Amino acid sequence: MRPGMRAVRRELKLARRDLREGRFDRSMALMTAFAALVSGWEAYAQHLRGAFSHWLMWTPVWLTPPTVLAGLGGVVRPRIAQRLLPLLAAATLADGVVGFVFHVRGIQRLPGGFKLGQYNVVIGPPIFAPLLMCTVGVLGLLAGVLRRERLTPRRWDIALADRLLDSAATAHADQTGTRGVTVRLAHGQFQRTMALLTAFFAVLAGGEAYFEHLRGSFNRRVMWTPVWLAPPMAAACVSAMFSRRAARSVLPFASAVTFLDGMLGFVLHVQGIQRMPGGFRNLQFNFTMGPPLFAPLLFSSVGLLGFIAALIRRDGER
């Protein structure tokens, strides 16, 4: 094997080891910043369509800049990741739940309310969009309890690295005990919990894709793909909760397909905006009234959550 390939394999094995040991707070903080930027933009575009008729429609937009900055800051400074980012993540979680309640009320107040459920859910405020924003809160809270990623020298021998990481994990467990939820999270022992959360967000993402694409009358067959993929992705997550083999084989495959479908959707949404009158020269109108630009990336984030669930350890695993 070539030296370059050996180095890549060594780095990938160390990265996987760090994930299993819960040492990926930098990566999680960076993912939080990205998810906050994506969901914040979508909230701005959707609420601009509604002319910000209620002051609470501004709250997800206001929360976006500090959450993005805290996520980026958490990559550099652990204190930001452990103290400031979880506070903003908790605020985002609460804001998502409040937004869901107001979106349900908005649909209920349309003529016919839920008696005309399918029509009003399609033309009314996107019912599941606020709950999808809660992914930002989940990622941020996890970043606050995970342990620090180490900048590992390339020359480290894998066996030596494994022994050092094992001894460090054992020492930490001896000092703090392994029963606490925080300790299990910090050591990457929450596979079942992560799989359950991923299944929940997969159902939400699939449901939101269905209603948004129903608004577009499913005029292209590819618009059905997130609707088709959401149930098997959720099923893969549920099976991973009960089967270690499913977590190692089925869940990574389902996560990869989900991630790639979200990326494909993003490209197609960009293409859809470009084909509107004025294209990118009429940005504000087309971004607001066209296909939601970053919504498919929220579907990709479900795939990323699935990857994390597949790589970390099971609850209570040594």
Q: What can you tell me about this protein's structure?
A:
The protein has 318 residues and is an all-alpha fold. The protein has helices at 3-20, 25-49, 59-76, 78-108, 117-123, 129-132, 134-145, 158-176, 181-186, 191-215, 225-242, 244-248, 250-274, 283-289, 295-311. Mean pLDDT is 85; it is low at 153-179.
Largest sheet: none
Give the proportion of residues in helices: over 70%
Q: Give the rounded overall mean pLDDT.
A: 85
- The N- and C-terminal alpha carbons lie at a distance of 32 Å
- Total number of helical segments? 15
Shape: globular
The count of DSSP E runs of length 2 or more, i.e. the number of strands, is 0
Could you state the order of secondary-structure elements as H and E? HHHHHHHHHHHHHHH
Rounded to an integer, what's the Rg over CA atoms?
21 Å
- What structural class do the secondary elements suggest? mainly alpha
Ranges where pLDDT stays below 50 over 5 or more residues in a row are 153-179
Strand content: under 5%
Feature tags:
318 residues; mainly alpha; 15 helices; 0% strand; globular
Produce the secondary structure layout:
Blueprint: H1 3-20, H2 25-49, H3 59-76, H4 78-108, H5 117-123, H6 129-132, H7 134-145, H8 158-176, H9 181-186, H10 191-215, H11 225-242, H12 244-248, H13 250-274, H14 283-289, H15 295-311
Helix pairs in contact: 1-8, 2-3, 2-7, 2-15, 3-4, 4-7, 5-10, 10-11, 10-15, 11-13, 11-15, 13-15
